[in-house]
Amino acid sequence: MKHVARSLLCIVACALLLISAGFREAAPAYERALHALDNHNYQVRFSDQHVGRLRSGMSIDRAGRVVAESDFLTRLASEHNSRQHKRFEFAARAPHDLLSATLISEREGTRVTTALIRKDQQYVARIDGHQAARETPWSFTLADYLGVELWLQSEPEPGNELIGQDLDFAALRPTAQVWRLLELNETGHLLGTGALRTATTIQMNADLVPIEFNILDAISVIAVDENAPLPDLASGMHSRFFHVPLDEKLGNHTAIRQLRLAVVAPPALHRAWPLIDPDGVIRSGVAGERQTATTLDPDSQIGSNSDYPTHSEALREVAQALLAQWRTDDQAQQLRELLTFVNTTLTYEHSADTTHPAQTLADGRGDCTEYAYLFATLARIIGIPARTVSGLAYSEEPTPGFLLHAWNEVYLDGSWRAVDPTWNQSTVDATHLPFPDDEARGLTLLAQLQKTRFELLRVSY
């Protein structure tokens, strides 16, 4: 569940980048525009539940540098809050180069700081003070950060598109973002973005202040009066919030090799989940009889980032000790040994606090999220591309059905394969139903799960 919540948090935080700008005016004369800035407050709702709040604003410091900050607080999966605080600092003089960008992520007691710092004409990426990537010669300026506002000042016609840049803390570099002006209305400008331009929208008023943000009819972000008290967050969406009932109990489910389920759900879920056939049936099988959800380049799943801190000296020492103990260069055997190590070293604790993989290992406990992130980090250290995936898996609690679960995919012998350290499976059973890689589809899928149920058509062991 926490991996899904973490992904959801990242989706919302990335999508809210425009709101974080908070400009009432965005004329090319930045100095004049900055005088019109205010702080802004927003309420965040997911599937009709109040799950978070956002505060954003910009200022000019004593040295004339432009500083943009946003603070996003949410509670999605436990009794604890998660927070993302972003801070961008731009040079005082044109072209107002980005001097530094910092993301502080706090998840159930774990704090990770990712920083991009300008050094000469390049940027250095650091995670918790450790260099995470080589210096890279990309460019990002205040004009990029305010790209949408500046574009709207040119009075584009409805249907026109802007290809801009967003700063991606996961990729540690700017990435392309496409915006389309959907319409001019009485309120102001209606914009669409993402792969589905009309599925993720922002309504801006005449002063270019974002007042409402809707993502795939699942997440809504609504501006509230700065003097109005923000309501307390909900108690969090427990994994049972996403329980999908099954009409029959499955015996010995970890040994199931083939599973056929009829899906009774809203059309939006059928469209969002490629695992569902056109006839409304999920046909799931074990490795060799199914496709993993991954189409990623394995080279992109081997480095260090805030989720997989392969730079951690403590984890690197553990990995080196394991390699010395195993005394094998066969990666398939290393994979099996690593699965057993994580499975037997950690004690499963449902809804345990999310922790940094090094802390997870030190504590010796966690739920499927901790198992998956620790496994993926150690796998990357020993040279096996790995990532964490989310989906549904069978459970008899509270009643027979499927709950959110996290496991891994690794790249071995030229292809991706699914493994599960929580259940010590080097070949996952057929009850593992992965969500799509496409985060937009995944978000739509999540929002529909409460209205979904499965009917068992066939099971084979």
Description:
The protein has 461 residues and is α+β, with helices and mostly antiparallel strands. The chain folds into 2 domains: 2-224; 239-460, C8orf32 fold, CATH 3.10.620. It contains 11 helices and 24 strands. The chain has helices at 2-15, 17-21, 30-34, 142-145, 147-153, 267-272, 313-326, 331-345, 357-363, 368-381, 439-448, and strands spanning 40-46, 49-60, 66-74, 82-90, 98-107, 110-119, 122-127, 130-136, 161-168, 173-184, 188-193, 200-205, 210-215, 219-224, 244-245, 258-264, 281-285, 347-348, 365-366, 386-395, 401-412, 415-419, 433-434, 453-460. The strands form 4 sheets. Strands 8-7-6-5-4-3-2-1-14-13-12-11-10-9 form a 14-stranded antiparallel beta sheet. Strands 15, 20, 21, 22 and 23 form a 5-stranded antiparallel beta sheet that branches. Strand 21 (401-412) and strand 22 form a beta hairpin. It is globular. The protein starts with a helix and ends with a strand. The model is unreliable at 17-29 (pLDDT under 50).
